[in-house]
Amino acid sequence: ARxxxxxxxxxTITFAVPCYNSAEYMDAxxxxxLAVGDDVEVIIVNDGSSxxxxxxADSWQERYPxxxxxxxxxxxxxGAAVNAxxxxxxxxxxxxxxxxxxxxxxxMAEVMGYLREQMEYADPTDLVIxxxxxxxxxxNARTVMRYKNVFxxxxxxxxxxxxxxxxxxxxxxxxxxxxxxxxxxxxxxLPRHCFYVDNIFVYQPLPCVQTLYYLDVDMYRYFIGRExxxxxxxxxxxxxxxxxxxxxxxxDTVDVEAIxxxxxxHYMENYLSMMMTICSIFLRMRNQPGDKEALDGIWExxxxxxxxxxxxxxLKVLNLG
Length: 321
Description:
By secondary structure, this protein is α/β, with parallel strands linked by helices. The chain is about 40% helix and about 20% strand. The chain is built from eleven helices and ten strands. Strands 1, 2, 3, 4, 5, 6, 7, 8, 9 and 10 form a ten-stranded mixed beta sheet that branches.
């Protein structure tokens, strides 16, 4: 990757912005990050774009040389862009913000207040969580995803203090801010040329997390509406091989049975069950040649890795598997 090459001082937080042909909408995202304060770092990762993304990234760096760093690399996909952001990060904390999304300024004022406090401590909070919002711009509608039924609000806590997640309620990349060194110590490296790597990002590092903090503010605004978004059903059906790849990596990178804390272990098991459910449903929906073998294969992969976990997960999705 080719970057600014300038040594930077420690910042409160690094925002990594993966960009692939994002020239049309990336400015709004970056403006929302610059509004957070001067003690942030914005790393724009131009992931082999063919439009005006590279020029825009360089322009932002020229205007804000102490805040913005433009990194240019050959196309490697979302995971490679996140890896590059983490590699170049000088923030105590690290957050990924996709180039068509944005952060809420008022919510970030509260979040940054807490992160700035953590800069004074030798042992800062490992994981800071806030709400995210599905912004269905074309429908003029929004849905807020919050966690106050699960986490204590505005106090540091541990996994022992975590309540019960609702069905389909999980931590997403949008809602988390990790301590940067924790991600590095966890050995996080996302696969190249693969979608759905955000699942690995919010799964693999969790066993390393000892302390958490939740703010009930609507921090992350997740744009919904582009036809090529990876969450669209037709797109997911076409990328099932990548969903399977990510699920295998999740099975490989975390030994769920070895997690001592029961609440964290239960959460990790449920998350993996959700991934297995998605694989099972979409392979059955698509029903193309080889899909039955692929379905059998992913379940065999889990069984071979951890027979006890396999049995429990299988029970949870019995009607699908």
